[in-house]
Hints:
Layout (H helix, E strand, L loop, with lengths): L6 H31 L1 H9 L6 H10 E8 L5 E9 L4 E2 L1 H5 L2 E6 L2 E9 L6 H28 L1
Antiparallel strand pairs: 1-2, 2-3, 4-5
Helix pairs in contact: 1-5, 2-3
Amino acid sequence: MSVVLGVRTDLRVCAAQLRREADGLQRRIVDGANDAVSPLARVIAVNTPAYLPIGYATVMAKSIRVQTSTSLVTNPGVRARVFAVGRREGRDVTRIDAGILRHPLYGNRLHWYAQKVTRGFVKKPFGRLRPGIVSNLNGVLEDVRARIERG
Length: 151
């Protein structure tokens, strides 16, 4: 024998409402994440001359891209992937951020040389922007939470 306390009806109503709102809420979170991360590419590009030789800095600044991905299910989070496109292939942003710039000597692609550059051309600008990005994302999530609570 089971006793129904009336909670079951409330849960059904709540579940139905959440299903109706789910797509819109997911869209708000994804858009909020994109908006929060969008200044990153511009800030990295502006600061590139402080980290790279001036001739390459202008080329790199034009090719910087940031791709945002949002996971809402198994491991919720936002990931920003910073990359740079080149004429033939992608530029090695990870190695350059670590302080190593590889380049061919005067365009001779048979002889590549490693040149030390200032570390952190991605990590340092990101570190400065991170609190604002987190704050913006928290604001979006708080807005979504408030919308769910209002019904």
